[in-house]
Write a structure and sequence with these properties.
The structure is a homodimer of 236-residue chains.
Chain A: H1 7-20, E1 29-30, H2 33-39, H3 44-56, E2 60-63, E3 67-70, H4 81-91, E4 104-105, H5 110-116, E5 124-133, E6 136-146, H6 152-157, H7 163-169, E7 175-184, H8 187-193, E8 200-209, E9 215-221, E10 227-230
Antiparallel strand pairs in A: 1-3, 2-3, 4-5, 5-6, 6-9, 7-8, 8-9
Helix pairs in contact in A: 1-3, 2-3
Chain A binds a DNA duplex (30 and 30 nucleotides) through α3.
Amino acid sequence: MSQTKAKFTVIKEHICQMIETGQWQQNAKVPSENELAEQFTVSRMTARRALQELTEQGLLVRSQGAGTFVATFKSQSSLLEIRNIADEIHERGHQHQAEQLTLKPVPVTDEIAILLGVENSDSVFYSEVLHFENNEPIQLEQRFVNSQLVPNYLQQNFAQITPHEYLSNEAPLTEATHEIEAVLAKHHICQLLAIDDSTPCLQVKRRTWSSQGVVSLAILTAPGNKYRLGSHLVLN
Amino acid sequence: MSQTKAKFTVIKEHICQMIETGQWQQNAKVPSENELAEQFTVSRMTARRALQELTEQGLLVRSQGAGTFVATFKSQSSLLEIRNIADEIHERGHQHQAEQLTLKPVPVTDEIAILLGVENSDSVFYSEVLHFENNEPIQLEQRFVNSQLVPNYLQQNFAQITPHEYLSNEAPLTEATHEIEAVLAKHHICQLLAIDDSTPCLQVKRRTWSSQGVVSLAILTAPGNKYRLGSHLVLN
DNA sequence: TACTCAAGCTTGTATATACAACTATTGACA
DNA sequence: TGTCAATAGTTGTATATACAAGCTTGAGTA
């Protein structure tokens, strides 16, 4: 069993693939334990294990009596606090407005090219989102996307897709690192954020791995805006 | 089964208690699945589940053929990146020096009192650690400890215990939030860090829950020092 | 029509069993 | 004494089974 893959792993990979290729959309019902057991010719407990581990990873959501479903953006709270906070702001009385620019190819610095794992810099897409709260600009997001790793349908339609939509369609993320630094922002960014050039800002470099795309984004927040991160919540 | 606790939960709680009270030290061997099954009069699979979930939470480490062991500080990488980074610095050629002050009771602000869950502010212990790298001060840690929630042996000997030792003896943490803010540090802190008063700094407020003690600490880092956070690593 | 409730499906817990894979120790042999 | 192989013990995977607990649906009733 060391050479050949474990059975529950095969099921997990199948489910991951269905989600990542978009064949199973958000909130879609996943086959029940018994159905999966029959489909893969395994016992219910083996199928159950696959579902359970993917649930722990945040890809699925289970409800006793109801069934198993593909997790929503919202459901993946433990791993993606940042995205959730952005969403919170978005939902809090619609006080948030974003100047949504379409993704467009740009040249990037060597560092970002390495982070994205690209050689040729013109295969990188870029977008900016300016977040408002109480009509005050509080956050500027700069997103760099390795176009080769973006799902095909997004590549084809990238011009019509807003960054927020892109993030929503992004493959479920199971890993991410955040590199946070205190900096003085460049002049034109300070102007966007309507702050003095000497105001200390947070710069967050976020790096994610997923089987579909590697996304790196930088966020600059105005002072007073706290950046909250929750580690994995585990209850007994 | 909704009213009464599930059997595997009882076993988990027992193991947690043994670890938190120090009866099972780091790297100590935990009873095997069969032993636990016999001890709690459950099946091996039930005992196994308890061990497995605690392993996922980072409290235990399992090795096929060898057994199950209490996790080391080092092993809990996924949840405690900050502590690990501090440790990294500590180990990297011993370039790190800390001015270790003993824990001492101090009055605190209302905010910290609330965070620590105390009414009377003089039950809060305080310590400062200044971190060096290449003989340059890079980080000042301010730690606030709710003395009531600190293990007894620490309370009795707090005067002899360095903050680093305290953290090492701290109960395994399963939850933590980090509130990060870009600020201008106060003058006396800037002097400690040997930076200009106008230099943007990171202020990290860390809040942890454990059954033993609640520790809240603020870290101010000098610019250029990045604050790295890794989310829970989940592999298929 | 609107409401109730029971049946059926789904997930949650628990057990008993079997074998595979790996480790560490023990003991026989050179 | 040193080496190696057998052995016992441990975790990992997988199955079959049973019942508990919660949701959904639809038939039947008021």
